[in-house]
Write a structure and sequence with these properties.
Length: about 475
């Protein structure tokens, strides 16, 4: 573990009710650096009952927090955001150590994560009610929007800070309190956020973090506890479906950000340079481990060979290594299981006729490092056409015309992000409208920003994070009919 400027950002216990707590019987689990395999910290391993106590703490803190003015809450959140930015370097180091992404990317994620706190602190001031024109004289129809209550959240390892702030920031801004279970691979970033929330003066019980290696037990506590009124999850589609089912028992409001299978379409009329830049950004960010990474790169016949040639050169140039080292562009994969999956998908594709043009093997560095890879002639019959690769493998498919591209792009149960490159304005509209996705990048490979609604359709999720829409899910609508006003 690299030396932090502020070593007290490395917390090993849970943060509940404003206090640092160990787990029952001081149970702990190891967090390791994916680049070295070495243990960085032994973190408190919360179980279901301890999680219930955290939910009670959040519930106890709710009335006072909800009853503050939005401006008061925003001031505290702003202080939290400023502390995060003041410790950007340390947080980036922590992130690279537990998650593996290159330091520059980690630093970018810290700022990106902080941007949600800034954004939602302000949005909290603009949760507006309504006065609807009445249906009868002497009566008035009012609509209030109020904080929904305690929020339970479960987050993944690929964006250890941003996935937490995307949920916690709108929750807190709306007047809710939150209990977060970060992924067992990356609890340290979430705990550092808790330390900074504490220093910022966010009151006890408003923001709670319960690290755990017993996801099912904590998930059950959060999804079935009657005092949790809203549950929000980012992770795999399979787990999301299970948690949604569990939430049915107490009819919670649910938001889900699940898997993707992003098509990245390059039409013959694309600006080739821009398309190459875009695909490199979209495919290789976080070593291919994002839910909006280009999973299927669909290239039109006329430009296919030139595109493949250029892409091969760029991929061969990617520098792989420990994310803490200068100039590294691709870190390790998160676990051995992630490497096994990439290998399985490559073997399946080559067995069915695809050709590896660059890479294709485990990296000489060993561990969970994998060579940045370009595989060509991939078809819809291969497993990587349906499954998220979640690794540094660019898979090229060929298509004939626009109709063919749209049919291929939509032939999946997922609907998170899609991208296409074209200089034809009519096509830009037609294809944007035809893609069954929650987000579309037109001549852009990077979509994420706090002011836009991030989220998917089909089996990629429910709800949106970011933008002014992202706070709605943390509020409840109340209709008030006011009578006796007189004629
Ligand atoms: P990934 O493959 O990206 O790890 P998961 O959906 O397995 O995706 O994990 C995302 C988050 O969901 C993590 O915090 C993980 O601990 C949690 N999780 C996994 N399984 C369950 C479960 N059965 N109940 C609740 N949470 C779970």
């Amino acid at each position: 573990m690299p030396q932090l400027n502020d070593p007290s950002l490395l917390r090993r216990d849970a943060y509940v009710g404003g206090q640092w707590l160990s787990a029952p019987a001081d149970a702990r689990f190891a967090v390791s650096d994916p680049a070295t395999g070495k243990t960085i910290a032994e973190v408190a391993d919360f179980d279901g009952e301890a999680t219930e106590r955290a939910i009670e703490a959040a519930h106890a803190a709710l009335p006072a927090w909800r009853d503050r003015t939005a401006k008061d809450r925003a001031n505290l959140m702003r202080a939290w955001r400023d502390l995060i930015m003041a410790h950007q370097d340390d947080l980036a180091l922590l992130m690279t150590a537990e998650q593996g992404k290159p330091l520059a990317e980690a630093s970018g994620e810290v700022a990106y994560g902080a941007s949600f706190i800034e954004w939602f602190a302000e949005e909290g001031k603009r949760i507006l009610g309504e006065v609807i024109p009445t249906h009868a004289p002497g009566k008035r129809v009012l609509v209030f929007r109020q904080a929904i209550g305690v929020v339970g959240a479960i987050t993944p390892w690929n964006f250890p800070i941003a996935t937490v702030t995307r949920k916690a920031a709108p929750a807190l801004a709306a007047g809710c309190t939150a209990v977060i279970k970060p992924a067992p691979e990356t609890p340290l970033c979430a705990l550092a956020l808790a330390e900074l929330a504490h220093r910022a003066g966010i009151p006890a019980g408003v923001f709670n973090v319960v690290p755990s290696n017993r996801a099912a037990a904590v998930g059950e506590a959060m999804t079935t506890h009657p005092k949790v009124r809203k549950f929000t999850f980012t992770g795999s589609t399979a787990v999301g479906k299970l948690l949604m089912q569990q939430c049915a028992s107490t009819v919670k409001k649910v938001s889900l950000e699940l898997g993707g299978n992003a098509p990245f379409i390059v039409f013959d009329d694309a600006d080739l340079d821009a398309a190459i830049e875009g695909v490199m950004l979209s495919k290789f960010r976080n070593t291919g481990q994002t839910c909006i990474c280009a999973n299927r790169i669909l290239v039109q016949d006329g430009i296919y060979d030139a595109f493949a040639e250029r892409l091969a050169e760029r991929i061969a140039d990617l520098n792989v290594g420990n994310g803490l080292d200068d100039g590294v562009m691709q870190g390790p994969l998160i676990t051995g299981a992630a490497v096994d999956k990439v290998e399985r998908l490559l073997t399946d594709a080559t067995d069915k006729g695809a050709r590896v043009r660059v890479g294709g093997q485990r990296h000489a560095l060993g561990g969970t490092f994998f060579q940045p890879t370009l595989i060509e002639d991939v078809t819809a019959e291969m497993a990587m056409a349906d499954e998220e690769i979640f690794g540094p493998v660019a898979a090229l498919f060929r298509f004939r015309d626009e109709a063919d591209a749209i049919q291929l792009a939509n032939a999946t149960e997922y609907g998170l992000a899609a991208y296409f490159y074209s200089r034809d304005l009519g096509r830009a509209f037609r294809v944007s409208e035809a893609l069954e996705y929650g987000m579309v990048g037109v001549n852009e490979g990077l979509l994420s920003t706090e002011n836009a609604p991030f989220g998917g359709v089909k089996q990629s999720g429910i709800g949106r994070e970011g933008s002014h829409h992202g706070i709605e899910d943390f509020t409840e609508m109340k209709y008030v009919l006011l009578g006796g006003i007189g004629a």
